[in-house]
Amino acid sequence: MNNIIAEFLDYLACVKKYSAHTINAYQRDIADMLKFYAIYRGADILPHDMGTADTTVFRAWMADRVRRHMTHKSTARALAALRTFYKFLRKTHQIQNEYIELIAAPKVPRTLSKAIESTDVADMHDAISVIDSNCQWIAARDWALVVVLFGCGLRVSEALGLTNRDVASRPDTLRIVGKGSKERLIPVLPAVYDAIDAYIAVRPDGNGPDDPLFCSVRGHVMTARMAQKVVEKLRHYLQLPDYVTPHALRHTFATALLSDGADLRTLQELLGHSSLSTTQLYTRVNMAEISKIYNNAHPRAGMDDDE
User: Fold this and answer.
1) Residue 288 CB: number of other CB atoms within 10 A?
2) Are residues 127 and 227 in the same domain?
3) Among all residues, which ones are annotated catalytic?
4) Which of 7, 40, 87, 246 places its Cα 20 to 30 Å from the Cα of 165?
């Protein structure tokens, strides 16, 4: 099985163009199922055994994940990874299994992180100046990162994937390569470039055209964890809620556009969502705000109809 799994992971990387993070998640999920299946059968799993697993096996595996306190979201993702693996087995090794398609994924509530108040985002500038007061270029970098996430609505991985060449000469739009290697164009406000230029002006090195725009103290590309720590420090310093994360900055960008009248199709393209249903989650936030305003301001809000 190890050779087949290695082939599958290579297929995900070279053919499907999945990110390393996604590939690692698929590997963990499939390994989890194979470990359970081996215990269930009382023997090591051989390739042909994958074709004999039935609904009882798959449901027992999912039940075992519940006992291990795995979330519905985690199990739904693991089941999706397993289905992809079975499609690969059918195409490349003629291993068929019709039972996997009979298994329903656990229902996962669609949730979305809250938007950050615009005043809180503005306060982050002064907070960064204090937090990074010992290093001017780090302060400029962190503020530029916040502005890019908030002003362009990028995923953290997309922002950290930018190079100096991408922002040279301040182009009106950025060409972003998102999930699944899908490209999209993002308009850039002058304020975003102002923050980037201020950062580049004081950055000590890493000024080659193909160097990463956002680099670490050692000159390497910033990692997602580094970006998370930047926002964590700001959250703690400003005593903001736990939902204030790098992704919440992207969410704030989307919510602001929707509130200003952007249509869902345009928002879908700007965010790089493959499905419009994902983008439609933002309408729930907008309607919630409308309801909140109504309940707080309308003179008859909360009254019974017969009053």
Assistant:
1) 11
2) yes
3) 155, 179, 247, 250, 273, 282
4) 246
Q: How many residues would you count in the chain?
A: 307
Q: How many domains does the chain have?
A: 2
Instruction: Indicate whether 306 belongs to any domain.
Output: no
Q: Are residues 127 and 29 in the same domain?
A: no
Look up residue 130 and give its amino acid.
V
Residue 307, domain member (yes or no): no
Structure token digits, residue 201: 């002006």
Q: Is 147 exposed, middle or buried (0-12, 13-18, 19+ CB in 10 A)?
A: buried
Per-residue tokens: 89: 């087995």
Q: Are residues 32 and 139 in the same domain?
A: no
| Domain assignment present for 258 | yes
DSSP letter at 43 equals: S
